[in-house]
Amino acid sequence: MQVITTANLTCPECSHVQRAEMPENACVHFFECDNCHALLKPLEGHCCVFCSYADTLCPIEQVEQEI
Ligand SMILES: [Zn+2]
User: Fold this and answer.
1) pTM over 0.70
2) Which end of the chain is less congested by CB atoms within 10 angstroms, N or C?
3) Ligand 1 mean position to 67 CA, how many Å?
4) How far does the centroid of ligand 1 lie from the alpha carbon of residue 66, in Å?
């Protein structure tokens, strides 16, 4: 399967959309917004900021959904 490793992350504070690289084997718990410098954290029950705020699930979740 093809794992997507870039995502468009939308800041919940200012709605700024930024393109971000996702590591394939680690969860990203903190991400700083380029625009307003808010520190994004995963929502409750989510493994990483990408699953919470991006248009693409993180690589780890993509693999899990494939199985
Ligand atoms: Zn922001």
Assistant:
1) yes
2) C
3) 34
4) 32
- Compute the distance from residue 45 Cα to the ligand 1 centre, in Å: 22
Residue 27: inside a domain: yes
Domain of 35 in residue numbering reads as: 6-66
The yes-or-no verdict on residue 67 having pLDDT over 80 is: no
> Is there a domain that residue 39 lies in?
yes
pLDDT digits (tens, 9 = 90+) for 9-48: 999 999 999 999 999 988 899 999 999 999 999 999 999 9
Residue 10: closest CA among 19, 23, 1, 22? 19
Distance CA 20, CA 24 (A): 13
